[in-house]
Design goal:
Oligomer: single chain
Largest sheet: none
Distance between the termini: 31 Å
Helix content: 40-55%
Number of strands: 0
Shape: globular
Radius of gyration: 13 Å
Structural class: mainly alpha
Amino acid sequence: MPLSTQSGGGDANIAMSGQDAVSQQHGGQTAAAAAGQGGASSGNHSPQMMAALERARMLHQQGNEAGCMQAIGEAKRLR
């Protein structure tokens, strides 16, 4: 499969790493989708939504599942 950064190749919404898989399991995007690479378009998200997703990522890394899920819920409301 071509890399999503190559012209015409790859699907930015397919998990390519363990971190991508965890992000998708918690309602987030893959790294490629968040960066706007491949076929996915992520340019229409509000700064507040992106901040909530970043908080969710940070809380997840800290092992705070409840806080992570709360931040994801906030991000969903801000879509």
